[in-house]
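So, read this over?
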Amino acid sequence: MVKMGQCYYNETIGFFYNNSGKELSSHWRPKDVVVVTLGLTVSVLVLLTNLLIIAAIASNRRFHQPIYYLLGNLAAADLFAGVAYLFLMFHTGPRTARLSLEGWFLRQGLLDTSLTASVATLLAIAVERHRSVMAVQLHSRLPRGRVIMLIVGVWVAALGLGLLPAHSWHCLCALDRCSRMAPLLSRSYLAVWALSSLLVFLLMVAVYTRIFFYVRRRVQRMAEHVSCHPRYRETTLSLVKTVVIILGAFVVCWTPGQVVLLLDGLGCKSCNVLAVEKYFLLLAEANSLVNAVVYSCRDAEMRRTFRRLLCCLCLRRSTHESAHYTSSTRTGTSTRIMLSENGHPLMDSTL
């Protein structure tokens, strides 16, 4: 019999799953096999892709600039997310019942920390792009200390959200507050996590919208002094494309998961969140792969570095030809825009 105010630190995982009404399978079901197969595939791709990005940034001196430190931190967070999801895949299905409470909180904490770090870094990149454009500065002139502080802040926030459930924000002493999707966590934690991600998205929308209208005004002002502007339409369309890709990827990957988290956090009894939770979590993990494509692989210089690194691995020989590469005219996270005054180049800003 469950008593109010009593703590259940010595109970099994099955006790909390039964309390929340979440099924704890004793054998591998077809659904479990599908989720694990897809999860392992996504995890391996995330690990390989983000390892390649980190290696590219470390090996190419052109990327030794503060803004690329943020891209490197995004790759590190997504790499961590790949490791966390891989750990989950080896401790899910029938293996969940064999976990201790500490093991379950470790599994959940790894996911929460890594995904929070990834989302927070996306916001940090947006903020730095906004600052760079508004200050009419090249990305290489961003203050190194500012970027380092942003990275430290990202991981402090991520570790805070990841460690809190194991130490205080759980429901081991209040079973009536347990969520269905994560039976050891308080529903309020899920609601706060979902609302935090929604806030991050809204801030990103505000930042990139402000950048878009600012750059469009600058290009229009430039058009008033030059008779022919074949690049005006191209610049505007490219800018729209970049913003849509960045925000669209976030919405597609994160919105489904945040909706079910919020519904569970708000205690919606009629919402069948358990039917889709595993697939939506997989979609959120896939964002760590999408980030690599949106923020890094669209950079021509980055792609050249990838080819050089892969050739080195395939041919088992080192090369020192990166110094001969010409600089890219288009970055992975943005459209590079030349703004001029009286026909002379004034700045080279990126989103």
About this structure: The two ends are 58 Å apart (CA to CA). The chain has nine helices and two strands. The first helix runs from residue 13 to 20. Residues 318-350 have pLDDT under 50 and may be disordered.
